[in-house]
Amino acid sequence: MAQLILPLLLFAGMYMLLIRPQQQKMKEQQALVARAAAGDRVLLATGIYGTLTEVLATSAYIEVAEGIEMLVARSAIQDILDEFPTDEDDEIQDAADEEAEA
User: Fold this and answer.
1) 16 falls in which pLDDT band (50, 70, 90)?
2) Cα(20)–Cα(27) distance, rounded to whole angstroms?
3) Whole-Å CA distances, 37 to 15, 33, 52, 88, 100
4) Between 48 and which of 11, 41, 44, 89 could a Cys-Cys bridge form, CB atoms 3.0 to 4.6 Å apart?
């Protein structure tokens, strides 16, 4: 009986620490992709920023620059943004990094 308890406890611990959080993360990502709509500003998993112009069943058109659209997989949408980052944001981050190094 005691020989059976240890493997069960190990499995339960691995489930709680590894499998369950990954499943929750996948559900959140699927919900994010499902609510994406035309006009949303998005960040793709590849690091490309753009605005959704049309959302299809498994893909979406994203405008990355004025007049330039790309067809991407909907699953590539990593985040929906309120606004795009600017060069000013990068300058602020660079200054903070320099202060941390000093």
Assistant:
1) confident
2) 11
3) 34, 9, 7, 28, 39
4) 44
